[in-house]
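Question (not urgent): is this output format expected?
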Amino acid sequence: MSDTVEVAVGRMDELTDPGCREFSIGEGDWPFLGFVVRKGNEVYAYQNFCVHVGHQLNWTPDGFFNKDDSAIQCASHGALYEIDTGLCFAGPCRGKSLRAVVVEVRDGVIYASGPTSM
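Got this back:
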């Protein structure tokens, strides 16, 4: 079982609204990969892992949104996930959810907690 570690992802005011930022926990060949999403004054975090085929979701570094920034979109098959719940509402994994990651904002800094490996 991997240890849970907290990492500082960045300052809230550094993220656009809406905006995303990737993070990793651990080192080596299989670190835990995640991303935070800002929407208004709320922040959500998920594992960067498509529930359809198991690869990373993003199009480009920190690029997780569909064209109008209303949903998280998988770069491979176009699945759409709700920003605030991680629930897939369109695409091949409809009804499944991204794995939520513990996230907290303290003194304007976003912290995420997760395991040190996949």
